[in-house]
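Recap quiz, item 2
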Amino acid sequence: MTSTIDESNKEKMRSVSVDLNHDASLLIDIPDALCERDKTTLSSFQKPDFSVPRQHEDFIWLHDTLVETEDYAGLIIPPAPPKPDFESPREKMHKLGEGEATMTKEEYTKMKQELEAEYLAVFKKTVQVHEVFLQRLSSHPNLSKDRNFQIFLEYDQDLTVRRKNAKEMFGGFFKNMVKSADEVLISGIKEVDDFFEQEKTFLLDYYSKIKDSTAKAEKMTRSHKNIADDYIHISATLNSLSADDSTANKKHLEKLSDLFEKLRKVEGRVASDQELKLTELLRYYMRDIQAAKDLLYRRARALVDYENSNKALDKARLKSKDIPQAEEHQQQCLQKFDKLSESGKKELTSFKGRRVVAFRKNLIEMAELEIKHAKCIPANRKLSRFMAAIWGMGPARLASSKCHDFTAQITDSPAE
Amino acid sequence: MADIARDPPPQHTDFHELEDGEDLFPDPAATLESEPASLPAEDISTNSNGPKQDSLFDDDPEDLFAEATEEVSLDSPERDVLLSDGPSPAITPITPPTSVLTPRIGLHDDMFTHSSFDEIEDEEEASDSFDMHISVSDPEKVGDGMNAYMAYKVTTKTSISLFKSHEFSVKRRFSDFLGLHSKLASKYLHIGYIVPPAPEKSIVGMTKVKVGKEDQSSNEFVEKRRSALERYLMRTVKLPVLLKDPDVLQFLESSELPRAVSTQALSSAGLLRMVNKAAEAVNKMTIKMNESDAWFEEKQQHFENLDVQLRKLHASMESLVLHRKELSVNTAQFAKSAAMLGNSEDHTALSRALSQLAEVEEKIDQLHQDQANADFYLFSELLGDYVRLITAVKGVFDHRMKTWQKWQDSQMLLQKKREAEAKLQLNNKPDKLQQAKDEIKELEGKVEQGEREFEQISKTIRKEVSRFEKERVKDFKTIIIKYLESLVQTQQQLIKYWDAFLPEAKAIS
């Protein structure tokens, strides 16, 4: 039950290969090698190893179906994977095309490489996010048994998901409005259970904070990418300068140009690591918290239903009319509410655990990567040697020079 | 200037893909060859810097040392400020680096083996024994409203005998600097001296300061200007002919200076200047010079290329500064957001880790800010200066063309007059003949003078260009070292901060 994404990785080895066509839809092949951990689920699958092509819309269909299933009202439905966002690389491609005339061939090639890397990164992220969605479903004791989920995995023909017709689209829109009304409702309702009261306050607050953090982290990553691009231009220009130069500066410029090239690689890696470890983490949990909030809404609505049914029962008793129906209705509402509360409690607790573990893992990895990247620029001793090399200072002199003091000072300076 | 063609060392440093902790720059001794004829001590595997080298030194190793050591010691006040907590105004940390750009020889006897450098001491370049340091400091707002201006304190420290004392300071305003430049330009540009251009006017910037906005951008503007003025003065006095100029001496020494009114942007003099510039541009296009000297042609091409490349580099550098400033702002915003997130997190260990993350990011944002300043003041401004300097260089070449044109014109006139004289002789008109003879004599004088002027300006330009190139190499070298140091420092700090954060992240249970 406390399966994290990591564990589910081990449970079911699943690799996803992606085949992108040039329009917005995404085809995903899911080769599936199930291993023996949970025999009960295994039996409902017909083949041990299979792969099917699925489009993004199919995932959305699966998600929506699960959300609409009454039985799962007490569960946190894993958030649907978002559509791949090629907006920013597309923009970049436009700019690159426009600026082609002003760049050297080298520069242009490098910019194109960067662009391709960005496309690839969006790609990989999309695949990962879709994969994570399926893995969470498969590791959930209830959801993994869902019939629709099994069809999704097995049905080897095109799912031809019935696209939502106009009425349903409108219905969906209406549902969103109801949801925002829900938010008002949920904050107004008198909570009987302390646990849920706390959770509600916490989740509502946390959601707005994490949404903000996600946006800010995205901006940070974007800035890093911009800097990496600048380094490309600088490195290229320094190269041209050094090619034309016949003075003592020639070598210095070459080395500097190489340094900037290295810097841009480092900057690019920092940007992408930050994106994956920080921004993605925040983004994912933002959506997950939304799913948790949805659970709370459903429970709140059930509570309202229950309270309404109580009132109806009282009225019926007063009027001495339709009492058994009212009683039955009230019982149903109570049952539903209790069921939701019980499973909701379990879900929310495990959610918290999951979240803490994921944050821990990603924060550690991010810090380690940042350190690794920062070390790519030469450290003290190496820089002294480097500077000595390009400006012809003998190492003996260097040792006695104040350069040594300087570098020593760097290592001794406090972390403040 | 020894324009020695260099073959790149056969073993190029191998910049292959980095792994963990891999050496970005593998042992230099393995990669560079000794090239005794050129920049001496590239062979560092042995103690080649010393007396073993033949006397084909140029002044490079000595200056190199001076700069390296001087910069290093002067760096410490800068770095102390950098390492202090809290956002300091962008201005204060920056003042030291610019004042470091001057070579200060004679203060580091402990470093060198005297024997090797006795040879170099009697270099003919004045800049080697150049002992003059000018600093521009203490910008003060004088007056109010639209008549307000910034007064800068110009302090000169020198032991050159031209000056009355060893240390003195005066108060100057921006238009004084412009006035000085216009005087020097009118005196020296047309005979071939590369007069350093003055910093540019900025009506928007100054208006903000006048109006009294005490905010970040006007502070930055004042600092940028102060730094530019200092560099301008240092460049000007490095030119021996300008150093001796009475206008320069007066500028540096006398407490009162007549107001330079003709430098106002919207004055009649300003408009006249603009019209003249346009006329000159048209003229330049029509002069076609027979370049007999390949050196000049080559140099002109070289400067054209340099101009294009430096402009491009400058633009990229400015973009880098902008983006780094953005990064700093975004990081600060993220830090705040992460702090709030940490506050609302109910798991204690995670909450603490998130708060720590916020603190780390805040420190990093300051780091980015400082690096952006280094990018700017070290690199970007230098490039801007050189873009303007190269415009001055091109101007000097243009003057040479004009001088040549003048000479050719008077030669052609002489020719015509001689033909006229011959015709008059045939037609026997004695009185007109005498007049013609007189004119011819005058013109012959003019032609001779024209030729002399042309020779003179060509000679001056050759000297100036070689001096300029030397300065350029030195300047860039200095800046590149400083810039590398700043980059390294940033990375070191980054490592420290993340290292401190890592245990916090691991402590999340």
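Chain A has two domains: 51-158, 203-390.
Chain A touches chain B through 89 residues (CB under 8 Å).
End of item.
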